[in-house]
Amino acid sequence: MIKIGHKEIGSHTKPFIIAEMSGNHNQSLDRALRLVELAAKAGVDALKLQTYTPDTITLDVHSGEFFIEDDQNLWKGNSLYNLYKEAHTPWEWHKAIFDKATELGLLAFSSPFDETAVDFLETLNVPAYKIASFENVDIPLIRKVARTGKPTIISTGMATVAELDEAVKTFRKEGNNQLILLKCTSTYPATPLNSNLATIPHMRELFGTEIGLSDHTMGVGVSVAAVTLGATVIEKHFTTARADGGVDSAFSMEPHELKMLVEETERAWQSLGHIQYGPTDAEKDSIKFRRSLYIGDDLKAGDILTKDNLRNVRPGLGLPTKYYDLVLGKEIKHDVKKGTPLSWELLI
Question: SMART domains recorded for this chain (predicted)?
Answer without folding.
Answer: SAF
